[in-house]
């Protein structure tokens, strides 16, 4: 989606509204929140917190304060670079709209809360952690200060605000000084509060927030300054609960923790320290929060051609995915395994990037072990050590270490073309250090962190805004599958723009509704449509001889096998058991033919294992994808837990390399009420069809957070191709992993599937290598279609595919795959790519 000037609009952009009728009331600045299905309008948050719907043609992007160190960006000409530093200033006003100050550096102001969700903090014992919950106490005034109470551990359920302030919960407290609040759902919050002055009266139902105190935080510890020590006591992390005075802020967690219009803040230092101290010590004195009305951000960028540019207006840069973009001086590891090699035991070579070809997706690398430069596919490379913006800890401590000295934790700010990196340390100093002196802290997004540590707030909208609900139906699903999906999620597709149907698919969906709901003749017609869409079977119409649903004994390699919640059938309630049996019956009768296979377990009714076949028309064609499911004792009041067999590969934006499956139906990403799990209507079949139809799609690039706006734009066209190429290469790598280590209980499915479809996989590789066909455009027999020649695949894709092709031929021949010997002749020619 583009603005009035043709600039791409992104989530969290600051825009100027040019023709809005409400400008006089709400101001002309707004933050982009959500795109609507028509792709012409979007929802924005105004300066006063109000949400309005505006047309894209009536706005212009003016700032991108969310850009951060290490963010990959592109300019108007398509040149790609990485952010080296940013500088943001704020325009501030009071609650009445009166200007307080303009151009204020962010270092001079603070949030209402002292810390934000995802912030990195340190403690005196030398541990670095991330905040996953902020606990605040709120002072409330009544009768003009005649009485004051303190609500401990306040949240929006305890007290309701009278103003409709839709603040960013990642960075802002639910409450701020000057805000009018009333008792919450329970009706006894003020009664049970700590009264600092006066006493509770039943008439005290509405008050004014005078202060917000950050009392404590819950911290997930990620690294220690003494991590190299062999002493066991230094490796034990501190308690998660920490008083606010015990932690020191190091840096924000991610780019969603950025300043934007409507944010409330205070100056860090007032003109009068005496006044400041008086306000801080006296709960009766009200220090009113200021409101951010505008942001101004400039960016320093290191471009791929080796040049640097400083002070670039942020709105002139477009954020792009960091996947397979490489920069001079960056150290990389070459994942280039020869035929017959085991990925787990392959020795990876390390080198330094000299140059990168964006069009060809190839990289010139100075390989350390042979002291020469070689050309590799970008898809065969990974960042090896530190990169711009990485948080690192120092192994070797200065002699003078202790207390809150932050010289041991820092951020990478530059990559000189040698074995050193330049780091800005927590104490403000900057120095070059060798790579063997530091360790990189693995960064995860806030939602993923919360999910991994099992924090319940991982399902809240604040914790899950990272993951896009932009998921798209694809043609291969077939009329029957689409009809099943619509029966359980019709409102989702109709009401929220983050689910998008192609026009042609929408037509097929509409016509299939009548077929499914009609007579027996119409149901037979629907089966014909399904048969057209689904992969063909062999002559005797026997699909693998592998039942689509069966109940067997639980496998020893199930992801949730060690779950201790009432293991076995005897520990579950009768209602739970009845519900599970009902789910089994639905799965047995209604699974889409030939594409989803399910195993339930008689000794562990709470577990299931699922295999899905990748569809033609997508980068996942002919692949197998496995998922382990767990039904908690609270099921169906809470959704099932799902883990993907990733083998450490991220084949899709919604399938993380950790195995986490990001889907609103699983409450692992945000969504409207109609998108989330419903105990009354949601089923396991709905979950499986959602993954099949909404995750493993034809154009996975647009599943990335915020990238639905890139559909039919130059940015989208530029990035969609390499994303699909990479998804296909990862699908092939997944095949090799599955052939070596098939999930228990599905050995026959893996073997038979690739025996029958192996030649089609190799035929597809041949079409991509020799014909330059576009990924995901082949038919069920791996033959080119009209869409195959729209754009050529990249040279880097050919290099990576040629390497995988030889390994696939060998693997398929080893299992007796039909018709694969003929491809032996291509193994030699493929090696020349």
UniProtKB/TrEMBL annotation:
Residues 510-531 are annotated as: Disordered. The keyword Transferase applies. Keywords: Transferase, Ubl conjugation pathway. Pfam families: tSH3-B_UBE2O, UQ_con. The keyword Transferase applies. SMART domains: UBCc. InterPro entries: UBC (IPR000608), UBE2O-like_tSH3-B (IPR057735), UBQ-conjugating_enzyme/RWD (IPR016135). GO terms for molecular function: ubiquitin conjugating enzyme activity. This is UBC core domain-containing protein.
């Amino acid at each position: 989606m583009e603005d009035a000037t043709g600039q791409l609009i992104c989530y969290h952009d600051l825009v100027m509204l040019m023709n809005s009728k409400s400008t006089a009331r709400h101001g002309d600045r707004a933050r982009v929140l959500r795109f609507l299905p028509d792709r012409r309008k979007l929802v924005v948050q105004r300066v006063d917190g109000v949400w309005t719907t505006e047309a894209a043609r009536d706005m212009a992007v003016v700032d991108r304060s969310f850009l951060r160190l290490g963010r990959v960006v592109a300019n108007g000409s398509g040149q790609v670079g990485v952010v080296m530093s940013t500088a943001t200033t704020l325009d501030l006003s009071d609650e009445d709209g009166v200007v307080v100050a303009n151009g204020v550096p962010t270092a001079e102001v603070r949030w209402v809360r002292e810390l934000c969700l995802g912030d990195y903090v340190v403690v005196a014992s030398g541990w670095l952690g991330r905040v996953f919950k902020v606990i605040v106490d709120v002072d409330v005034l009544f009768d003009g200060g005649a009485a004051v109470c303190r609500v401990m551990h306040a949240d929006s359920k305890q007290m309701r605000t009278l103003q409709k302030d839709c603040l960013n919960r990642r960075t802002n407290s639910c409450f701020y000084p000057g805000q009018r609040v009333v008792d919450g759902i329970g009706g006894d919050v003020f009664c049970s509060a700590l009264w600092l002055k006066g006493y509770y009266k039943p008439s005290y139902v509405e008050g004014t927030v005078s202060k917000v105190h950050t009392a404590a935080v819950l911290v997930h510890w990620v690294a220690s300054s003494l991590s190299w020590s062999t002493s066991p006591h230094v490796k034990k992390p501190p308690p998660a609960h920490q008083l606010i005075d015990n932690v020191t802020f190091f840096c924000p967690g991610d780019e969603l923790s950025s300043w934007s219009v409507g944010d409330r803040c205070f100056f860090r230092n007032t003109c009068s320290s005496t006044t400041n101290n008086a306000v801080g010590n006296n709960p009766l004195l009200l220090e009113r929060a200021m409101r951010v009305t505008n942001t101004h951000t400039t960016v320093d960028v290191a471009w791929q051609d080796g040049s640097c540019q400083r002070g670039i207006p942020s709105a002139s840069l477009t954020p792009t995915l960091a996947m397979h973009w490489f920069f001079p001086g960056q150290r990389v590891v070459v994942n280039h395994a020869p035929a017959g090699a085991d990925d787990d035991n392959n020795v990876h070579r390390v080198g330094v990037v000299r140059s990168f070809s964006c069009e060809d997706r190839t990289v010139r690398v100075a390989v350390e072990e042979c002291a020469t430069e070689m050309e590799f596919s970008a898809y065969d490379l990974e960042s090896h050590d530190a990169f711009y913006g990485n948080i690192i800890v120092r192994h070797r401590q200065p002699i003078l270490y202790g207390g809150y000295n932050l010289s041991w934790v820092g951020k990478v700010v530059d990559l000189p073309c040698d074995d050193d990196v330049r780091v800005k340390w927590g104490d403000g100093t900057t120095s070059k250090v060798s790579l063997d002196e530091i360790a990189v802290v693995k960064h995860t997004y806030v939602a993923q962190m919360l999910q991994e540590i099992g924090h319940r707030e991982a399902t809240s909208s604040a914790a899950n805004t990272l993951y896009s609900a932009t998921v798209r139906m694809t043609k291969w699903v077939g009329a029957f599958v689409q009809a099943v999906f619509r029966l359980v999620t019709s409102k989702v597709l109709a009401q929220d723009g983050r689910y998008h149907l192609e026009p042609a698919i929408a037509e097929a969906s509409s016509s299939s509704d009548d077929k499914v709901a009609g007579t027996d003749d119409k149901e037979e017609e629907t089966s014909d449509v399904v048969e057209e869409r689904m992969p063909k079977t062999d002559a005797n119409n026997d699909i693998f001889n592998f039942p689509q649903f069966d109940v067997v004994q639980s496998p020893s390699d199930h992801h949730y096998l060690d779950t201790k919640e009432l293991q076995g059938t005897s520990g579950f309630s009768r209602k739970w058991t009845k519900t599970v049996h009902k789910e089994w019956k639905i799965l047995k009768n209604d699974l889409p033919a030939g594409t989803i296979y399910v195993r339930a377990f008689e000794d562990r009714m709470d577990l299931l294992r699922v295999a899905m076949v990748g569809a033609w028309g997508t980068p996942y064609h002919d692949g197998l994808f496995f998922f382990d499911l767990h039904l908690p004792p609270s099921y169906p009041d809470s959704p099932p837990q799902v883990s993907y067999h990733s083998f450490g590969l991220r084949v899709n934006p919604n399938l993380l390399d950790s195995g986490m499956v990001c889907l609103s139906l699983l409450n692992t990403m945000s969504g409207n009420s109609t998108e989330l799990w419903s105990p009354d209507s949601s089923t396991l079949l709905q979950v499986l069809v959602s993954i099949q139809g909404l995750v493993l799609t034809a154009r996975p690039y647009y599943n990335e957070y915020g990238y639905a706006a890139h559909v039919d734009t130059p940015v989208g066209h530029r990035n969609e191709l390499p994303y699909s190429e990479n998804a296909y290469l990862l699908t092939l790598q997944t095949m090799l992993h599955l052939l070596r280590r098939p999930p228990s209980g599905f050995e026959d499915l893996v073997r038979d599937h690739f025996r029958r479809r192996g030649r089609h996989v190799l035929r597809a590789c041949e079409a991509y290598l020799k014909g330059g066909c576009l990924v995901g455009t082949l038919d069920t027999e791996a033959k080119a279609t009209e869409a195959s020649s729209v754009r050529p695949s990249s040279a880097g894709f050919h290099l990576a595919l040629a390497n995988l092709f030889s390994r696939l031929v060998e693997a398929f021949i080893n299992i007796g795959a039909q018709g694969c010997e003929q491809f032996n002749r291509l193994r030699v020619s493929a090696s020349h790519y």
